[in-house]
Fold this protein.
Amino acid sequence: MEDVLRPIVVIGGSIVVTLILVWLADRTLHRIDAVHPETPLWGLLRRCRIPAQVVLCAAMLRGSYDEAGLEIVDDHAAGIGQALTLVLIAATAWLLVRAARAIVESSYTRYAASGRDAARVRRVRTQVTLIQRVVTASVITVAAAAMLLTFPEMRAVGTSVLASAGLVGIVAGIAAQSTLGNLFAGLQIAFGDMVRIGDTVVVDGEWGTVEEITLTFLTVRTWDERRITMPVSYFTGKPFENWSRGGSQMTGTVLFHLDHSAPVEKMRQRLHEILQECEDWDGRSWSLVVTDTTPSTMVVRALVTARDADTIWAVRCQVRERMIEWLRAEHAYALPRITTAPAPSGRRELRADGDAAG
């Protein structure tokens, strides 16, 4: 009877104790979250429930499996202990990654809720995203090294690896020069405030919004839903336009090529009427002036403002469309024309006289 009850008590008891302890911790976090809804950390920490169960159960089994009294356990004690150790290390890394992600996400959520400066919020979002990736990569690397060191063979190899570390480091540095450059460029972008997630940028003639920043690459979503993936070192080594830098407000222009007889003063009044009816215009500034002339047309420039890059595009399109429609309906003579006329008959007569004289 003891041979049957002992493994049930050891294994089943570990599982039951794990479920009870984790359930109590989850209930405690739930109550704290209900009392303090302004702090999202407690609710986010509940995501650690499953990895916490695995860690606790693996730890309890690792310390008591040899007391189970099973023959298979006695015959393979070393292998079972090794497997439980590996599970414990992996589950601990999983738990740390989940907890770090909850802390970072909670900090950003609270800052975004209280922050009024959209540009600063995007900056913090970029930084916490890259910090989270660095922490995750570090935890995984340490966990993988710890798992390898549990094998006796790897400990023996460690001495020879350390002896040749200098040569390996030089070779790895040369081979990974581009990767390391992108890694440091990613950290420079995160804390140098060059570009942030959500910024409107122009790179290689493409206009779009920064959608994702990692330690090695950056993704820009263009206006037509394409994704441009570029190494982060591009943004530290080449010039690019950042329309969100220093504020999101934008100034745009609309150019009209018109006949010299166009009623500029009436166009100025009409532009003001159009902007008054435009919801996307922020009311900061507007103007309409003649900026250039050619032998057949003149260039009229309308200047408008908006709160960001997306709305300035909408304002420009609306001004262009409604102004051309008004000119066509009320002042059609102002639209550009190509004047054609038959050649004077005198030229043909002079040419004929010249041919006759020749």
